[in-house]
Amino acid sequence: MSLAHSGVALMLPVTDVDRATQFYQESLGLELTGTNDEGSAMFAVGSDAQLVLLPRPDSRPSESTAMSFEVDDVTSEIGTLEGRGVVFEDYDLPDLKTVDHVAEMGTERAAWFKDPDGNVLCLHQEVG
Fold first, then answer.
1. Looking at residue 1, what is its pLDDT?
2. 67 and 121 belong to one structural domain
3. Alpha-carbon span 80 to 56, nearest angstrom
4. Which domain holds residue 107?
5. Are residues 124 and 74 in the same domain?
6. Do residues 90 and 125 share a domain?
7. What is the mean pLDDT of the chain?
8. 3: which DSSP letter?
9. Do 121 and 65 share a domain, yes or no?
């Protein structure tokens, strides 16, 4: 099997695995599939991918988007996640402006939020 056809695991460092697990499970609705010997929480995402929350007490989040979820309707998904306590970011920058949490970028609509560790997560929708 080539890498082009391999399943992918996204390794995301978090300072508190239990707190992050609760967020990803309860707020985002991801399915916890288990933990490994290191204490990482593992979630099924997408059709053949895995999110692994790595216990890294001294980690600092990246300022860039760590992970983006492709959704059918960004606005609807925002409403669902806000109902579970997720807080969305708003931007008013020269190259990025959100309206009702959503940025229109060519053929894509996107919205951003942070996990409890400050990792930037995104919802995106292809519209064109």
1. 64
2. yes
3. 29
4. 61-128
5. yes
6. yes
7. 95
8. G
9. yes
Residue 24 one-letter amino acid:
Y
Helix (H, G, I), strand (E, B) or coil at 128: coil
Whichever domain contains 67, its CATH number is 3.10.180.10
In angstroms, what CA-CA distances link 53 with 17, 80, 100?
7, 23, 30
pLDDT in tens, 75-114: 999 999 999 999 999 999 999 999 999 999 999 999 999 9
Q: Is the pLDDT of residue 64 over 90?
A: yes
Buried b (16+ CB within 10 A) or exposed e, 12-28: bbbbebeebbebbeebb
User: Which pLDDT value is given to residue 5?
Assistant: 83
Q: Are residues 68 and 21 in the same domain?
A: no
Q: What is the average per-residue pLDDT within 25-36?
A: 96
Considering the domain architecture, whether residues 117 and 71 belong to the same structural domain is answered as: yes
Rounded CA-CA distance 35/41 in Å is 5
- What is the dihedral angle through the alpha carbons of 63, 44, 27, 24, rounded to the nearest 10 degrees? -50
What DSSP designation does 72 have? S
How is residue 123 written in tokens?
């919802």
Instruction: Decide: 33 and 50 in contact? Cβ < 8 Å.
Output: yes
> Do both 38 and 52 map to the same domain?
yes
